[in-house]
């Protein structure tokens, strides 16, 4: 066992958190997961990783967990993630993403937790006017989800200045794919992400894929996104812990590869991986979709030494499809 203090992974029973647990344990860290299982599943947490069932909004549970496990670093993945839902239920999003993050940050400051890694999002930028998007671009989120996350970044910045908490906020672009060894993947019962939806269609779990708009000012008229493999993202979190442990600067870091694919290119890749055509129906634009979102990645590469291993659309899609096949086989 390593000499590192334990890492508390909130939301570790969810999609990205489960991959972070794998990356942490492979890097020699002890992890403990806290999750309320609102969207995550107990089965996503390996048997040898301690699991605490409860909410990050529960101060007594947090104080007990931080103390009992000797937590030195918190990775905070727990949250609500569906953008249109955040428009319909803004107060629920501010509660789970902002108020509960406040409770967690406060508990960390009280308990003397040294480091905090936060799951932020490209949604904090809103509709950027320059590509690729740099971390110093204006943050003008266009939905409650993005605002609820940006407020947490602000709380971290202020708590760092006042109380010495060290932090890294990672602004994820489009997270996709699954653990190449098949140990984890995206389970969400109600999928909203493009690659997940296309893979569900490829395994026969849905009839068709709706393509939201082909009249954007892009190379084929469909939106461009920077898809990042979830295992590379998990590695970025480990790199962030090491960076802070080594006395590196606090900050916000984009997490993307710096190049994007159109929706049509993604669907082509899924067809290639599946070896059969998808049924695709072009419908109108989805509200709030920027035409293009691509990360500037210089900062994360320079500061954290992040080295992506799966920067390849076919790999992302192949691992996502393999996971979807496992899910289909398991659930029938
Ligand atoms: N998936 C993406 O494309 C994406 C993009 C940008 C940012 N993010 C952020 O990454 C984080 C993880 O997202 P994900 O895709 O793994 O989602 P997910 O829904 O699979 O995981 C979230 C996990 O948090 C748990 N959770 C929710 N509220 C909780 C609470 N109050 N207390 C304890 N546990 C709670 C859920 O049960 C679930 O296991 C989120 O904070 C999300 O905002 C995700
Ligand atoms: O059934 C679908 C689903 C999506 N899309 C399109 O595919 C692209 C990607 O959409 P999606 O996978 O839903 O991701 P985004 O809307 O780009 O948002 C994701 O990426 C953001 C950061 O960029 C995160 O903040 C969000 O949490 C996360 O949902 C967009 O152009 C969508 O219009 C379709 O055409 N059909």
Automatic annotation (TrEMBL):
Enzymatic class: isomerase
Necessary cofactors: NAD(+)
One matching Pfam family is: Epimerase
Q: Gene3D superfamilies this protein is in?
A: NAD(P)-binding Rossmann-like Domain, UDP-galactose 4-epimerase, domain 1
Which pathway features in its UniProt record? Carbohydrate metabolism; galactose metabolism
The protein's annotated catalytic reaction(s) are: UDP-alpha-D-glucose = UDP-alpha-D-galactose
Name the domain of life this protein comes from.
Bacteria
Q: Which InterPro entries match?
A: Epimerase_deHydtase, NAD(P)-bd_dom_sf, UDP_G4E
**Annotated NAD-dependent epimerase/dehydratase domain residues:** 7-256
Q: What are its E.C. numbers?
A: 5.1.3.2
One example GO MF annotation: UDP-glucose 4-epimerase activity
Which family does the similarity line name? Belongs to the NAD(P)-dependent epimerase/dehydratase family.
Subunit text: Homodimer.
State the name under which the record lists this protein.
Answer: UDP-glucose 4-epimerase
Look up and give the organism this protein is from.
Azospirillum himalayense
Gene symbol of the encoding locus: galE
């Amino acid at each position: 066992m390593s000499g590192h203090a334990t890492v508390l992974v909130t939301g570790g029973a969810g999609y990205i958190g489960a991959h972070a647990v794998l990356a942490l344990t492979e890097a020699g860290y002890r992890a403990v997961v806290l999750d309320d299982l609102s969207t995550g599943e107990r089965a996503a947490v390996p048997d040898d990783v301690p699991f605490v069932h409860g909410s990050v909004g529960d101060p007594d549970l947090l104080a007990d967990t931080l103390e009992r496990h000797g937590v030195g670093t918190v990775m905070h993945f727990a949250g609500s993630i569906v953008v249109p839902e955040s428009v319909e239920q803004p107060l629920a999003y501010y509660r789970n993403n902002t108020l509960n993050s406040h409770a967690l940050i406060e508990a960390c400051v009280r308990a003397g937790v040294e480091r905090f890694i936060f799951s932020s999002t490209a949604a904090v930028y809103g509709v950027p006017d320059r590509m690729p998007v740099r971390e110093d671009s204006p943050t003008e989120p266009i939905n409650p989800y993005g605002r609820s996350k940006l407020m947490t970044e602000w709380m971290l910045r202020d708590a760092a200045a006042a109380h010495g908490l060290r932090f890294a906020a990672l602004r994820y672009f489009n997270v996709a794919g699954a653990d190449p060894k098949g140990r984890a993947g995206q389970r969400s019962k109600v999928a909203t992400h493009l690659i997940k939806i296309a893979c569900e269609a490829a395994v026969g779990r849905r009839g068709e894929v709706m393509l939201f708009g082909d009249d954007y000012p892009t190379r084929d008229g469909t939106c461009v996104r920077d898809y990042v493999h979830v295992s590379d993202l998990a590695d970025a979190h480990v790199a962030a812990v090491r960076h802070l442990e080594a006395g590196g600067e606090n900050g916000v870091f984009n997490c993307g590869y710096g190049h994007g694919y159109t929706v049509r290119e993604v669907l082509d890749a899924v067809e290639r991986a599946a070896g059969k055509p998808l049924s695709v129906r072009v419908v109108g634009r989805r509200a709030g979709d920027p035409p293009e979102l691509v990360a500037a990645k210089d900062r994360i590469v320079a500061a954290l030494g992040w080295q992506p291993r799966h920067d390849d659309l076919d790999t992302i899609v192949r691992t996502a499809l393999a996971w979807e096949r496992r899910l289909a086989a398991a659930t029938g």
